[in-house]
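Q: Give me the 3D complex with 6-O-phosphono-beta-D-glucopyranose.
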Amino acid sequence: ELKDNTIVIVLGASGDLAKKKTYPALFGLYRQGFLPRDVKIVGYARTKMDEAEYYKRITSYIKVPEEEEAAAQLEEFKKLSTYVAGDYEDGAAFDNLNKHLEEIESHYQSKECNRLFYLALPPSVFIPVAKNLKEHCYVSKGGINRIIVEKPFGKDLESARELLGSLKQYWSEDETFRIDHYLGKEMVKNMLVLRFANVALGAAWDKNSISNVQITFKEPFGTEGRGGYFDEFGIIRDVLQNHLLQVLCILAMERPVSFSAEDIRDEKVKVLRAIPPIEQSDTLLGQYVAANGKPGYLDDDTVPHNSVCPTFAATTLWIHNPRWEGVPFILKAGKALNEAKVEVRIQFKDVTQGIFKDISRNELVLRIQPSEAVYLKLNTKTPGLYTRAIPTEMDLTYKRRFSDTKIPEAYEALILDALKGDHSNFVRHDELDHAWKIFTPILHWIEGKSGQRPRPVNYPYGSRGPKELDPFITKYGYKRSTEG
Ligand code: BG6
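A: Here is the predicted complex, encoded as structure tokens.
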């Protein structure tokens, strides 16, 4: 339920995340009427700027829809927004922020005031900001305080535990909303419905019917300008350990007792606990090199010239439980590939031979982006006076089926959930802990903690990935369709 009299405070308001994601999502919610009554938005960051400059920054990524009223709504949205400049480590600066918040709240009718703090900040200031907010900006007179935080949550198990432990001193689990924005994506949210509201799919959802599962993330651009951050983290921490692993959990979990946040997250944690740490032999690492007129990873000035940081990784996870024993879950992600695409591909087993030969396997594809779609590859008799089966597709493309519906942005969905206090699509502390247990050994190996750093194989900018990828997937039983 939404609380009236809420202030959303965006810390890091002049940064990239805030201008690209947070403010556009807040505006999207505002114009669709989803923000609480009397909402106000306060930006906070170090940069000193006047209102005009602040408005310019926060609206620079907002695409004003064509509808007539949208431009007017943007003006209204600006009027709700104010800005306070201040340091992240300085208690007095947060007192100043608090004064500003109290001034706004003094105009509210009711005494209850609620504050949602959104930390769009680099990890180096997470802790001082969390502490200062608690000590200087926490409403204690009957309102609700919530804090939204974003990855990176540490670099490995140990550092994540340290970070979470420090944050816990100031903010309880109930007040904390850890974003993994993949959980806000429409198709990811659809997965629970597809699985548990369809007998036909549910019945085939296990090792008896499924041969292998691939969860794929492809981006057509490199680290352009973000090389400094990226080189420290690599593709595994950037995408696999969080976004793709969360998708895996939802695909693999047992049916939750209810849709409550704890019931859902309990089931996800059980999946994570059944996955052992990733083996080196189940991992393929790549790095892009210059091609098609585009620079290689090492040509990026912000990247050390001899970096062996992977910009591509494929790795296979195994879930040791009765439903999934022996079914490989292949996660793969890469930068600077041939296309932008995120999808899940569930490949079913071979049909019994005999009356059929060389027949393709069924595949269920859940396309997360772009252009959300669910399609099932089915073998069908070609129409005609003979019997020949060919692979065809049962296709549910959202643009066609739900043509009048606007698909919400992930950040819109998640900010709305946080405003309502619904944790279902946020990452619980123990999920994070288990996620790090699975990935920490392989990350330490890649970083040379146990000897020489492994060298990733090369792949050309704009290609499908390393040439080693096809044999890698085949090794885990994936079979290409014979046709179609
Ligand atoms: C972020 C990663 O978490 O997700 C980026 O840090 C990546 O490197 C991005 O580009 C992808 O998000 P989306 O929503 O564009 O798929």
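A quick observation: The chain is about 35% helix and 20% strand.
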